[in-house]
Every structure is written in C-alpha cells, then in structure tokens.
Write a structure and sequence with these properties.
By secondary structure, the protein is of the alpha+beta class. Helix content is 28%, strand content 33%. The protein folds into two domains: 28-159, Immunoglobulin-like; 203-246. The chain is rod-shaped and about 180 Å long.
C-alpha cells in the first residue's frame, strides 16, 4: 500500500514538472488595449492601440485576432507598429466586417522580451449601441521553439448621440407700471373747433341784408337802383333844408 502511494505521488510530481514549462509559456504573453473603454458618437471614428507583453519570454511573431460586434462597429484601417513585418498569407491576415473579425499576423526579426506596440486599429461607429472588443481564442504567440495562446482583457465601448439641450423660452413679462409724477401724461389731441366768421364774410352778409331791403326781397337790380336814387334824393333834400335853416 505504501509503495503504491509513493509511486502515485512521484508520478504526479513528474507530470507537473513536465507540464509547468508549458503552462508558464501559455500564460506568459498578454495583450492590452488602449484606451480600455471609450465613448463616441455615431458616425465618428476612434483608434485602439494594441500592445504585446511577452512577460520575459522572447517572442518572434504574433497572431492577433479581434472579435467585435459588426452591427455597431466597422474596421476602417490597421497599421503595424515599428519594426514589425506583416504576414499576409491566407488565414493570417483578414478584415471581416460582416462577421466582426480582424486577424493580423506579423514577425519581429530581433524578437521581443518586453512590451511593444503591435499596431493600431481604426474603428467606425455605425450606430448607437454598446459592447466589447475582445481578443479571439485563436490568437497566438510564436517563440523560438514553442507557440502559445495570448490572453488579454477586453475593452468596452459606448456609442451614443450627444444630448442636445434646447433652451427654454423666457416667461418673464415686463410689468405695466403707472407713470411717475415727473412724466408728462399723454393726452388725446383736441378736437378741432369751429372758426369764427371772418370780416369779409360779415361784410358779405351785411351787403346781402341791405340788398334784400332795397329790392324789397325781390332781388331785382333795377328796383334796387330806383330805391337807391330815392334815398339819395331824400338825403339831398334833408341836407339842403338844414343848410337853409342855418342861414
């Protein structure tokens, strides 16, 4: 019984020793996105920088796969970082905006053992919505003799239209105030009054009255002349009589 337990223990330790390097290599390389989250308006573009961190294990090539929601995002372009050499073979280079998949593979001739920018992706925000951009399961890190999966935390995005603030109309009304004592009150214009008869109008009225008297209301010119002569004769006789009396 003791020999059996000892045998199992030694076998387990041996298996762990053999597996540990593989596990370490598998968990070594990571990917990070910058920014880790973003907010953008529909119809706008934004950039994501992809950084590879080999965690001390020298890498010579990377295959980075991104998954994103194709109904809200679209890949517009991708640019590799400095010193990377793109691998464009089928299965290693792909932009699929229908299914939301981006695959980019590149080698680093001198190898990397510290964090290096792999590339920059430009996304276009198609419509309002939210979601994540994550590292695909088929992402791989290629070392000298081994290859391992790459891990990394997803980044979140929110696409929302900016809020439009409509100014409220002012409800303040100008109060009606009584005029102050120093103000001159506004009065209605005076109604026009009847103008008195002019001197000419009075003379014409008097002449019309005398004319009516001398013609006895007939309006005849000859009667008026005759009456006028009679009056003159009477006046002349009266003047003559007065002169004779004084003598």
């Amino acid at each position: 019984m003791k020999k059996t337990i000892l045998t199992i223990t030694l076998a387990t330790l041996g298996a762990l020793v053999l597996v540990m390097p593989t596990l370490a290599a598998t968990a070594a390389t990571t990917v990070s996105f910058s920014p880790a989250s973003i907010k953008v308006a529909p119809g706008k573009s934004f950039n994501i920088t992809i950084t590879i961190s080999p965690q001390g294990v020298s890498n010579y090539a990377e295959k980075v796969v991104l998954n994103y929601p194709a109904d809200t995002l679209e890949v517009k372009s991708f640019s590799l970082g400095n010193a990377w050499i793109a691998l464009t073979q089928s299965g290693y280079d792909l932009v699929d905006n229908t299914n939301g998949v981006l695959v980019k593979t590149a080698g680093y001739p001198a190898g990397i053992s510290s964090s290096v920018v792999f590339g920059t992706v430009t996304f276009y925000a198609k419509k309002a919505g939210s979601g994540i951009i994550k590292l695909g399961d088929s992402s791989m890190a290629f070392e000298v003799k081994n290859q391992s999966a790459i891990s990394g935390e997803p980044m979140s995005f929110t696409i929302t239209a900016p809020t439009v603030t409509v100014p409220k109309p002012s409800t303040t009304q100008n109060p009606v105030t009584a005029p102050s004592q120093n103000e001159t009150p506004i009065t209605a214009p005076a109604q026009p009054t009847e103008q008195p008869l002019t001197q000419t109008a009075a003379q014409n009225s008097l002449a019309a009255t005398i004319g009516g008297f001398m013609t006895f209301g007939t309006g005849s010119v000859w009667i008026g002349i005759l009456v006028g002569l009679i009056i003159l004769a009477i006046i002349g006789y009266v003047v003559y009589a007065l002169i004779q009396r004084k003598k």
